[in-house]
Structures are given as structure tokens and as C-alpha cells.
Design goal:
single chain, 1 helix, flat
Length: 108
């Protein structure tokens, strides 16, 4: 943890030289929620090095938001991207996420 300043307030990170940042025309914000499922496996051999898997992440929901800079890319080229969060809940959340990305990238 950072140490408090002299007046016991938390330190503040400040940026300068904003003109040095790299601007990108498209930004994708995505989030997954997952449930941990137990894994039943065989017993490892103590004579060899091993990892013990006992849980598996299964995505059950995802959200995606695509921010497009229309100064860089004309709006006519980005009509497949909605200006809102697109959320999905279901066992095939990872597949649905990839479908949305592919539709956005290739317009299929």
C-alpha cells in the first residue's frame, strides 16, 4: 500500500503531457462473469512434478461495449457497433462474445 501523505490523505496519481498519449480509433470494453465448477481428477504421482486442477471457470455472462471515435472512422463504417452495453447471460457466453466480436470486425 502507498504511504499516506503528510496530511494523512492518500497519495494522488497525476498525469501531465497528455499530448504524448496514443489515441486509438476503436476501444473494446468487455467483462465476463464465471462460476467455479469442481473438477474430479485422478490422483497425481508424488514422484513427479504436477499441478492439481480442482476447479474450472465456466463463463455464464458477458458484457461488451465498443467505443468508436467517429472523427477517425466514419459512422457509415461502424454501424454494426451499438452505442450501448451489449450483455448476454447463458452457458454459451464465451461463444456469444466471440460471435459479437466477429460480427463487429467483419460485418457477417
Amino acid at each position: 500500500m502507498p504511504t499516506p501523505t503528510k496530511n494523512d490523505k492518500p497519495p494522488v496519481v497525476k498525469f501531465s503531457n497528455y499530448h504524448n498519449i496514443d489515441k486509438v480509433p476503436i476501444v473494446v470494453y468487455a467483462d465476463f462473469e464465471a462460476v467455479l465448477l469442481p473438477i474430479s481428477s485422478c490422483q497425481p504421482d508424488p514422484a513427479t512434478s504436477y499441478s492439481y486442477e480442482y476447479q474450472q471457470h465456466q463463463a455464464y455472462s458477458c458484457g461488451i461495449y465498443v467505443k468508436v471515435d467517429n472523427d477517425e472512422i466514419p459512422a457509415s463504417k461502424t454501424t454494426c457497433f451499438k452505442n450501448e452495453v451489449d450483455a448476454y447471460v447463458g452457458e454459451d457466453a464465451a461463444s456469444k462474445f466471440m460471435d459479437e466480436i466477429e460480427i463487429g470486425m467483419w460485418g457477417s
